[in-house]
Design a protein that fits this description.
By secondary structure, the chain is an alpha/beta fold. About 35% of the residues lie in helices and about 20% in strands. Strand 10, helix 5 and strand 11 form a beta-alpha-beta unit.
Length: about 725
């Protein structure tokens, strides 16, 4: 990032002159007044001005009555009512103010869009709106909306960037003994985004750890680049994602909606760019506590040796590690031998009850810790102690020697040493380490395990560019498809779906829809039996749920009986449905049923997934997913992570090993289609995909594509359609 790129954000986080617009001469509780007091009481050393048309004295400052007097200010903090904000920004930009921090709330989507457009056209760098502001802790610059909130934060190396102001407060106050460089509440991100601040913090010498609290991702490509810049600077980025979007809810029309969701897209995207996702404020705070003191690269694969003071704690630790996906170290035979010499009546397994032997004492405990830390298969030693705030002085004193032993080990061991309180209650002040201490005490064993897991996952390589394969249509054809679907919403009709899939070389099994049973009989006489009959209705996506499917029809009589039974069942279950006929399809011999699907978030990307398919797809919940598009290699890796792969590999000799080339090829094509059309298609699935064991041939028996919901003018409801990317995309 060049100096020119940094200057706008330097102006925001380290202004020399601030002008507050919106403070009141009569209401001391107005947001602008609180900002003024925060700046003054926080120790801001620059110049503070107030702009008010009525002039006078506000918070002891003689107000500027004309906007021209604001010329030369680095930053304007705007706290006016929503409707007055944009005119004020115009006036401020006209006199040369280049940065605005808008704390005002109550904006409509159109007003937010207007602020974005103004920022782009004017060159004014705008933070917010609907935000709490910025705190530069080292420089004591409190550009914060609520007086006294977070005013006493210690300086350190942690930066929090949060779209939620309250989220930033919760997490900052949930950490134990760490210090902060910046607290950034970004609000609606009309102009400056989380990605911009991550890029800035990657270059900031006083920041070492970056924590994000996200409700939406507004610039996925920019955030990926920013995270890569932070990684290159040796700064881990961790995140908490809250909420879901309309695209995730729209996807429920397809089986994909149950298997994949907007959360799936976020998970796959964050996995790809190397940002571990935490589940809640407590987990994020624990990850911050760990990363602020421990070199994240020293965590390695996160193989954790847990040392406890009781057998019950050890058993609980094992359960929690399995629940959160933490990696427990497996002690080597040599380590087990050495431990059993020190603890002769114990079986040395991890988690280890270091006081479970009759011979255990302070000396054997220290020796146990040393042996565990010297195992080559151990990346982290995690000690479990009681450190909750409710402990009495006697109870704390009881564990002083234990804490001293871990502290000594931390000074001598070649691997990181951590402590976890057995409870997620606030850590007792006696146990809260100083901000310059190297051994963190993490609040709660579950939180500690998720923090170690997160540190081990700060390893993504960022998106890699893929050449567009020759097996997918050209950009020109893709644009034609997009134009043809420009005003389509909801489930695509059968013919439109087949045209889209066919353009990518995906051909569902031959079928035809009939409004009359006699026509269907004549078609079967020409094409042969057995056949499958399915209800044809745009209102019914899961046809088997309403008795809308009949399999293995061998002759005319069975077809006529099935026809009548399907119509009767569908009319009974869905009397309101638009019935266009019954689709008759060639019956494919029994094989292995697979599911391929995708769900799209236009602002982030597309998650494409694969797993065991058929009517049990949601019950079995066998799906692995990644950000589209995929290379053949990444598609193969995705398949390898599923139970479907075990079936194809001849599970328990049910059949010979199946050639997966056709499945992988289809997954690659589907991933490119989903990525090309992510602003047009919300979700889709090929389910079931029947795989013939003998040959590996893959037959698309049923397919569903769901278009994005659109506004009245045909524009996707989520955002304007951008230009299609040319020739390259991110591999998983």
């Amino acid at each position: 990032m060049s100096l020119a790129d940094l200057i706008p954000l330097i102006t925001l986080v380290s202004p020399r002159r601030v002008v507050v617009v919106g403070a009141s001469s009569t209401r001391t509780d107005a947001t602008g007044n609180q900002v003024l007091r925060n700046l003054r009481n926080g120790g801001f050393t620059g110049r503070i001005d107030v702009l008010s048309r009525t002039g006078g004295t506000i918070e002891g400052i003689e107000a500027l009555s004309d906007v021209s007097e604001a010329a030369g200010a680095d930053l304007a903090v705007v706290t006016l009512r929503a409707g007055a904000v944009l005119p004020a920004l115009h006036d401020l930009a006209a006199v040369g103010v280049t940065a605005g921090l808008v704390m005002s709330v109550g904006f409509t989507p159109d007003e937010i869009r207007a602020i974005k457009d103004f920022s782009r056209d004017s060159g004014m760098h705008i933070h917010g709106p609907n935000c709490m502001g910025l705190i530069n802790v080292h420089d004591r610059t409190m550009l914060w909306a609520d007086e006294g909130i977070l005013a006493d934060l210690p300086a350190g190396n942690v930066a929090i960037v949060s779209q939620s102001g309250s989220g930033a407060i919760f997490v900052a106050r949930s950490t134990s003994g760490v210090g902060f460089s910046h607290i950034v509440s970004t609000g609606n991100e009309a102009a400056l985004t989380t990605a911009d601040y991550v890029r800035y913090l990657a270059e900031d010498s006083r920041t070492g750890v970056i924590a994000l609290i996200l409700e939406s991702v507004y610039d996925s490509d920019g955030l990926a680049r920013a995270v890569e810049a932070a990684r290159e600077a040796g700064k881990p980025v961790v995140a908490l994602k809250v909420g879901s979007s309309d695209s995730g809810r729209a996807a429920t029309l397809a089986h994909t909606g149950a298997m994949l969701s907007n959360r799936t897209v976020i998970d796959a995207y964050m996995e790809q760019i190397g940002v571990p996702l935490l589940a809640d404020y407590d987990e994020l705070a624990a990850a911050i506590d760990l990363l602020a003191r421990v070199d994240w690269q020293a965590i390695g694969a996160g193989r954790t040796a847990i040392v406890t003071l009781s057998g019950g704690q050890a058993a609980l630790a094992a359960d929690l590690a399995e629940q959160v996906g933490a990696t427990l170290a497996r002690f080597s035979p040599e380590t087990q031998r050495r431990l059993e010499e020190v603890l002769p009546d114990m079986h040395a397994i991890n988690p280890l009850d270091a006081w479970g032997s009759a011979d255990a004492d302070d000396e054997t405990f220290r020796r146990t810790l040393q042996i565990v830390s010297e195992d080559d298969g151990v990346d982290v030693v995690l000690g479990v102690i009681d450190a909750q705030s409710s402990l009495s002085a006697i109870e704390l004193e009881y564990e002083d020697d234990i804490v001293d032993a871990f502290t000594l080990l931390n000074a001598e061991a070649d691997v990181p040493v951590l402590l976890a309180s057995s409870s997620s209650m606030t850590v007792h002040p006696v146990r809260v380490p100083a901000t310059d201490a190297s051994i963190p005490v993490l609040r709660g064993l579950r939180n500690a395990l998720t923090a170690v897991r997160a540190a081990a996952r700060v390893s993504g390589q960022g998106p890699r560019l893929l050449d567009r394969p020759s097996s997918v249509p050209s950009i020109a054809i893709v644009e034609e498809i997009r134009d043809s679907l420009a005003r389509t919403s909801g489930v695509l009709d059968r013919d439109s779906m087949r045209r889209v899939l066919g353009a990518y070389g995906i051909s569902p099994v031959s079928s035809h829809s009939f409004g009359d049973v006699d026509e269907a009989v004549r078609w079967c006489e020409r094409n042969g039996y057995p056949v499958v009959a399915k209800i044809d209705s745009p209102d019914i996506t899961h046809r088997s749920d309403v008795g809308g499917v009949a399999l293995g029809l061998q002759d005319e009589g069975q077809l006529r009986d099935a026809w009548a039974a399907i119509l009767e069942s569908v009319h009974r279950h869905r009397p309101d449905a638009d019935i266009r006929g019954i689709e008759v399809q060639r019956q494919i011999p029994a094989g292995i049923e697979a599911f391929l699907g995708f769900v799209s978030d236009p602002d982030i990307g597309v998650a494409v997934g694969i797993g065991i398919g058929g009517v049990l797809v949601e019950l079995l919940d066998d799906v692995e997913y990644a950000i589209a598009p995929l290379s053949p290699e990444s598609a193969h890796r995705l398949l390898d992570g599923t139970r479907l792969s075990q079936l194809l590999d001849g599970f328990r000799n049910l059949h010979p090993v199946v050639d997966v080339g056709s499945v992988v090829n289809l997954l690659v094509k589907l991933s490119w289609m989903a990525d090309d059309l992510k602003d047009t298609l919300a979700a889709g699935d090929l389910n079931p995909l029947i795989i013939e064991p003998a040959t590996g041939a893959a037959f698309v028996v049923d397919a569903l594509l769901v278009a994005q919901e659109r506004s009245g003018d045909g524009v996707p409801a989520l955002r304007q359609v951008p230009a299609l990317r040319q020739g390259a995309a991110a591999d998983s």
